[in-house]
Amino acid sequence: MKKMSLPSTGKYTLPFLLLAVVAISGCKDPDTDDPNIPEPADLSHLPFGGPNILIRNQGNPQPDHLSLWLCGLPSDGAGNADASDWTNPDGTWDYTRKPQVNGNVSWSSEFNVALDGNGNRVITGNALPDHPTGVFPITPGSAAYQYDGNPNIISEHEVYYVLPEIPQVAAEPSCVPFGPSGISLTGSAIYHGSSTLGNDAAAHEMLDRFGGHTDGTERYHYHFPAQDLQDHIHPYEAGHSVIMGYMLDGFGIYGPYGENGELLTSADLDECHGHTHPVYWDGEMIDLYHYHWTYDFPYNIGCFKGTPQ
Ligand SMILES: [Zn+2]
Ligand SMILES: [Zn+2]
Asked: What is the pLDDT of residues 139-183, one digit of tens each?
C-alpha cells in the first residue's frame, strides 16, 4: 500500500501567539525604538517601470526579475503618456507631486469570500469598492484632468471566481493579460502595473487617494498600494502585512511589509513578485507562496506563479 504524504503546512501557532502577546504588551516608551512603527517609504523617488514591461508576443518569451510579463498589448491603448511634471532630475518619479483624482463618491459594494468545503475559494460580488472613490469621469478643469481626461464611469460587474483554497505553484509561470489580475478585499479589481499604452500605470495615470481609477470597461481597479487603501483594509500593526486580496491563480497578495516588518521592494521578491514563507491563511499559519504589493514597479504581480482562472 502506498503511503500518503501530507502536504507540509508548517504550523507556527505558538510562536505567532507569543509574538502577538509581545506586540500587545509592548512598551510605548517614546525613547526606545518601537518595532510597531513601520519603516517609512520614500514615495518621492520611485523608478519608472516602463523599461521593465516585457511582452510575450513581442519577443519576450519569459518573465524576469523586477519586470511585468504581459501576454500582449492592446493596439488601441489610451491614457496619459506625459509624467514630466512629477519626474525628478535623476529620472525617478515622485508620487507626492503627482495629482490625484479628488472626490468622495460612495458605492454600494457587495463582496463575499467563502470556502466551499471542496477545496475551492468562491469569491462573489459586484466589483464596486467598499470605500469612496474620486470622481470619474475625471472632472474637466481639475488638476488631474489636464494630464488624463479619463472619460469612463464606474459601473457594477459580476464577480465570480472559483479559486483553489490552497493554490499550487505551476510548473511554469504564465504571462499576465489585460483586465483584472486579482480581486482586492475591498471588492474591486487589482490590475497589473501597465497601462494599455505600455507604460507604468501608477506613474502616469491619474488615480484617486486609494490608488484606483476606472477604464474603458468601467471597472474600478487599483494600480498602487496607496496608504488609504492599506489602512482601509487593515491598519498596519507589526510584522508581516495582512492579506489585501487574491490574485486569479488563488494566491494571496499582502501589503508591503515582510516577515520582520521590513519594507519590501520588488528586489526582495521573485520574477512573479512573490515569495514563500509561513503566512496567515484562512486562520492558520502555513508555508505558502504569496504575492506582495510594493511601492515600486511592478507593484503587485510580475507573472502568475500558479494557474490563473
Ligand atoms: Zn488602470
Ligand atoms: Zn511575505
From this structure: 999 999 999 999 999 999 999 999 999 999 999 999 999 999 999
Residue 213 CA to ligand 1 centre (angstroms): 6
Domain extents for the chain? Answer: 55-74+89-292
Q: Tell me: the pLDDT tens digits for 107-147?
A: 999 999 999 999 999 999 999 999 999 999 999 999 999 99
Instruction: Identify the nearest ligand to the CA of 257 by its number.
Output: 2
CA–centroid distance, 223 to ligand 1, in Å, is: 6
The ligand that comes nearest to the alpha carbon of residue 193 is 1
Expressed in angstroms and rounded, the spacing between residue 237 Cα and the centre of ligand 1 is 29
Q: Which ligand is nearest to the CA of 291?
A: 2
* CA of 80, nearest ligand number: 1
Question: 240 CA to middle of ligand 2, Å?
Answer: 7
Can you give the pTM of this predicted structure?
0.88
DSSP structure string for the chain: -PPP-PPP----HHHHHHHHHHHHH----TTS--TTSPPPP-TTSB---GGGEEEGGGT--S--TT-EEES---TT--S----GGGB-TTS-B-GGGS------B-----EEEEE-SSSEEEEEE-S--SS-B--SSPPTTSTGGGT-----------EEEEEESS----SS-B-B-SS-SEEETTSSEE--SB-TTSSBHHHHS---TTSEE--TT---EESS--HHHHHHH----SSSPPEEEEETTS-EEE-SB-TTSPBP-GGGS-TTSEEEEEEEETTEEEEEEEEE--SSTTTT-SSBSS---
Residue 15, C-beta contacts closer than 8 angstroms, at least 6 positions apart:
none
